[in-house]
Structures are given as structure tokens and as C-alpha cells.
Amino acid sequence: MQKNNSSKFYGFLIITLAFIGLPFLLSEYHRDVAITLLINFILVSSFRLITTMGGWSLAHIPLMGLGAYTSAILTRYYGWPFWITLPTGGAVAALISWVMSFPLVRIKGFAFFIASFAAGEAMRLAWTRIRYPFGGHRGIVMIPVPNEIIIPGLFSINFYDSIPYYYLTFLITGVSLIILYRIDESRIGYTLKAIEMEDRIVNSVGIKATQYKMISFVIGAFFAGIAGVVFAHRYQSIDPSAFGFLTTLYLIVWVLFGGTKTFIGPLLGVTVLTIVQILLRNLAEWLPMVYGFILIVTVLFLPEGLEGLPRKVRKLWKLYNPKVK
Amino acid sequence: MIEKYFLNVEGLFKSFGKNLVVHDIDLKLEQGEIRGLIGPNGAGKTTLFNLISGFLTPNKGKIVWQGKNITGSAPSTIVKNGIARTFQLDVLLKDMTVLQNVLIGHHLHVNIGVIAQLLGLGKVKEKEKEAMRMSLELLEFMGLLELKNEIAGELPHGHQRSLGIAIALATEPKLLMLDEPITGMNSVEALNTMKKIKCLREKGITILIVEHNMRAVMSTCDKLTVINFGQKIAEGPPENVCENSLVIEAYLGSPDDEDDLILC
Ligand SMILES: Nc1ncnc2c1ncn2[C@@H]1O[C@H](COP(=O)(O)OP(=O)(O)O)[C@@H](O)[C@H]1O
Ligand SMILES: [Mg+2]
């Protein structure tokens, strides 16, 4: 236990330091990719929280969009500061997901897929059809960057530049992941896993499964909304197509490819696939196909995702070296 | 009106489609007794458990628990009121450790609301410590303490049965319903488990047990209720029930069950 914990701590430390140093090693383009990666960390981790109770929600990306739209509208048309719209975007996504969760947590399997998809598409339809304030299919442009932080005589931070925005995202992602990790390790996390594993036991010991499913759905949506806000203020323009099914497909591939059993799995998945994406930069139009291919390969050969790989390798190793214990 | 019985099941009916599985069953338990519920396979015993524990809703009839009508309540409500049950098959959190299984079983005692848990309000830490202490105690009682870090689904069958009982006990029930607790155990394990069941009664837990091993049932139960094709056909002290001609016919009439049953 002790040893495990300290190696976990050092791993955490090294990765954190690497991400702190990263922007200075990168070009402007790659810095943007790194910001997107950090935003995607929030997305995959919050999505995993929902999958622990067994639901693969297709509304996660539209809920991210809801956070983005909320913050875009409030900053652009009502002059709210980013620092207030950040939690507000999360809260609005959480609130809407709470309403959605009443029917959603009571259905399972394929029906859950379809219903969550329909709920997400309904939101997107509203953004496309309603010109004010959503801007129809053109969306919202000229979203302001977060307000400059000025400490007179000392320094000022302008979030128009990519390095300050990187660190802002890093901070928000860090806090989000720590909260999500704490939830995963808490009784709530275990209860959610138990609900997915064997609902008869869960019912027989007095757990109200629907309540737990709702809470995981709502917390997941809150962080999706946060990711949406950070996304909107970096790209400064959003439209309904950014939160469409293709993005949902990417999210699912990241998470499946990484594996959902451990907290680190989906983070690993999205990191590796982002690197693949950079390498295939010249083949951008083929990307959906590449993702489809990776999805198929994962389902066929890596059903537990990347995180299951060490175990697989160990098994093969044993197979060829029967004497080694 | 003062309710005379601890658990009073009256005129219970349950059918699946056209298949009438529980047919006008009455079951009255007194506090502190060990009651055996026996009958051939398919008689409706497990279904009766499911009805009492809220996993199924009866078509007709009522279930009164300590004077309170609990018919049709959700399983979580019923266990909260003090009725716990185990499952006939090894239903466990198979990918979790033995200890985690029992910790989940303590849900009702730690539960201070999801929001409070999230925010770390109230006495979360103290309650978790308490749950851990009680879980270890329970595992020791069930003889599973050394196995606490094993994965539940990888345990031998007999230990899985014991773990099922430990989970139910973690809810601190007043009435414990055991569905074939020693089926598939070797004779030493079976004997041990039956001893523990008696011990639980000494601690004040009322017990309703379904079991095919007649020797175990005869030596443990105060009273037996026999059902066949969803109907009660006999009830009384074990010695009397065994001599009942209806009971003998019910068992001998179905040769498939001979393995299951060692008649008196
Ligand atoms: N969920 C169900 N749906 C349909 N039929 C069921 C269901 N559960 C039990 N039965 C039927 O009810 C009858 C009694 O089953 P059960 O209560 O498991 O018997 P026992 O536990 O006494 O062996 C059997 O014929 C079984 O096929
Ligand atoms: Mg049965």
C-alpha cells in the first residue's frame, strides 16, 4: 500500500511538472493543441464518472456546448466577467442535465443511448434555430477572452496570449481532475461502480441507485460545462457544429481506447490519440476514418483499453516464458 | 390495533403471466424464531423472498412488518426497516474485494446524503471509520478476515456464500432471510454456517431460512413452513412436519429432487 501510494505520488508530480514546463518547449500551434488536450482531460474524466454507473451518455458534448453558449452569451451580450461565467456555465449544464436525468437514469442500455442522443440533439436544434441569442448555425463570434489581470506596478496577465491561457486552462483542469479523482476514490465512486456491477446487491443493502446515477450525471455535466467555457473563450467563436456527433464519437474513442476501469485510462487514451492526430496532421480529412478504425481495433483487440495492455503483455510473456514466475 | 406478529404475510398472490407461483400464502413469524421454509424446487420459495424484500410486488395480499404495511415498498425502504435477504445464487460485487463488498453493505449507516458526502460535511470520516471497524468484525465472525483483500468472484463457492451473508448482516437487520445458505458447501462449512446462524439468533436476529439440507433444517429451525406449487401445505415443529403425509408426497412425488433432500 505504502509503496504504491508513494509511486503514485511521484508519478503525479512528474506529470504535473511536465505540463508546467510544456508550453516553453512548444510552437504556437502545438501550444494550442496542448490547451485543447487539457480541455479534453476534463471532458474524458467527467465522462468516465458517468460511465462508472454504466451509462454511455451521448449528451455529454452537447452539455459541454451548453456551458460554452452560456458563458459566450453572458460575457458577449451582458458583459459578465469570465470568472463568474465559468462556474455559471458549469451550473447551467448541471441544471439542464438534472432535468434530463429524471427519465435518463431510469432507462438502460440502447434506450439510454438513444434518449441521451435525442436530448443532446434537441439542444443543438435550439441553438441552430433560435437566432437570438444563439446566433443560429453561425453561432456566436467575438467572444471576449477572460479579463486581464492587472496588479498595478507589478505585472499584468493578458489571456489573449497562448501561454497565459495555457496556464489558466492548466489550473482549471488541475482543480477539476483533483475533484473528480476524489469522487472516484470516495464511497460515492465505489457505490457507482457497485451499481454497474450488480444492482441486486446494491438494492438489497438500501442504496437508492437512481439517486446516485443522477448525481454522477449531474456532476459529469457540470465539468463538461466547465470544459465548454474554457473552450469558448480560447477559440472566441462557437457554433452548433462544434458540439455535434463527430465530437461525441471522438470522445467515446478516447475513453474506450484508454479504458474506463482506472482514472488514468481515459487521460492516457486522449493523450496518445492527440499525438497520433498531430502526426497525421496532413491527413486531417481522413481523421474520422482513422478514429473509426481505432475504435474497431480497440473493441476487437483491446477490450479493456490501453490500461489493460500491461496485463495482456504479462500474460503473453508468461505464455512464452513458462518458467518465469 | 396491536400487531401480534413480527412479520405477518397475509393472502399473498404472485403470478408471472399465467403461471401462478405464489398462491394465497400466509406466513407469520414471531420475533426471535428461526423459521425454515422448505419445498421442492420451483415451489415458489425464492419468489416469496423477493416479494417480502420488495424485489417483486405481489398481485394481491399484504405484508405487515412490525405493525407497518410494507407491501409494494422499494427494496431500499424495506432493508432500511430491518429486513435483509441473501440470494440463492452467488450474487456479489464480483470484481471488488471481500472487504469492499461488506463496506458497501454498510451503506445505510454511513449514508448521510450524497451532497453531504461530496462536500465532506457531517461526520463522514468518523462514520467511515466505524463502518470499517464493523466490517472487519463481521468478516471475522463469518471466518473471512484473512480473505479480506481477495476478489470476491475468485473465492471458492463456500466462501462466496458466507460473504453473501456478511453483506446482508452489514445492514444490521432485525429479520434475516437466507436463501439456501449452505447449498454447495462441504459438510464442515455447512455445519459452521448453521452454528453461526444459531449464534445470530442469540444476538436477537429473527431468521427465515430456505434450505434443502433437511438435517440442517431439522436441527436448527424452531418451526417449518412447507410450500408446494405456491401453496402452503404444512406448518409446525420439524418433527411433526416430517411425518405429514402431504409433505412426504410432495417430495417423493418429484423424483428429480431426491438428491436435494435427505428426509429426516
Ligand atoms: N422472474 C420470473 N419470471 C417468470 N417466472 C418466474 C420468475 N421467477 C420465478 N419464476 C417461476 O416461478 C416458479 C417458482 O420459482 P422459485 O420461486 O424460484 O422457486 P423455488 O425458490 O422454490 O425453487 C418457477 O416455476 C419459476 O420458473
Ligand atoms: Mg429458490
Give a short synopsis of this structure:
Chain A is mainly alpha-helical and 325 residues long. Chain A contains 13 helices and two strands; from the N terminus they run H-H-H-H-H-E-E-H-H-H-H-H-H-H-H.
Key features?
heterodimer, A: 325 residues, mainly alpha, two-stranded antiparallel sheet, 2% strand, B: 264 residues, alpha/beta, six-stranded mixed sheet, four-stranded antiparallel sheet, 22% strand, binds adenosine-5'-diphosphate, binds magnesium ion
Give me the secondary-structure topology.
The complex is a heterodimer of chains A (325) and B (264).
Chain A (H helix, E strand, L loop, with lengths): L1 H20 L6 H25 L7 H17 L5 H23 L4 H21 L19 E3 L3 E3 L4 H24 L1 H11 L1 H6 L4 H27 L9 H14 L5 H16 L7 H15 L7 H12 L5
Antiparallel strand pairs in A: 1-2
Helix pairs in contact in A: 2-6, 2-9, 2-10, 2-11, 3-4, 3-5, 3-9, 4-9, 6-9, 7-9, 10-11, 10-12
Chain B lengths: L6 E10 L2 E11 L4 E5 L6 H8 L7 E6 L2 E2 L5 H6 L2 E3 L12 H8 L1 H4 L3 H6 L4 H18 L15 H14 L4 E5 L7 H16 L3 E5 L3 H7 L2 E6 L2 E6 L1 H6 L1 H8 L12
Parallel strand pairs in B: 3-8, 3-9, 6-7, 7-8
Antiparallel strand pairs in B: 1-2, 1-4, 4-5, 9-10
Helix pairs in contact in B: 3-7, 6-7
The structure holds adenosine-5'-diphosphate (ADP) and magnesium ion (MG).
Specify the structural class of chain B: alpha/beta
Residues in β-strands, percent of chain B:
15-25%
Helix and strand sequence of chain A:
HHHHHEEHHHHHHHH
Compute the CA-based radius of gyration of chain A: 21 Å
Could you tell me the strand content of chain A as a percent range? under 5%
- Spatial strand arrangement across the major sheet of chain A: 1-2
Low-confidence stretches of chain B: 255-264
What does this structure look like?
- The complex is a heterodimer of chains A (325) and B (264).
- Chain A has a domain of 216 residues.
- Chain A has 13 helices and two strands, in the order αααααββαααααααα.
- In chain A, a hairpin with a 3-residue loop joins strand 1 and strand 2.
- The longest helix of chain A is centred in the C-terminal third of the chain and has 27 residues.
- Chain A is globular, with a radius of gyration of 21 Å.
- Chain A starts with a helix and ends in a 5-residue tail after the last helix.
- Chain B is of the alpha/beta class and 264 residues long.
- The longest helix of chain B is centred in the middle third of the chain and has 18 residues.
- Chains A and B meet through helix 7, helix 8 and helix 9 of A and helix 2, helix 3, helix 4, helix 5 and helix 7 of B.
- The complex binds adenosine-5'-diphosphate and magnesium ion.
- The site of adenosine-5'-diphosphate has 11 residues of chain B, from strand 2 and helix 1.
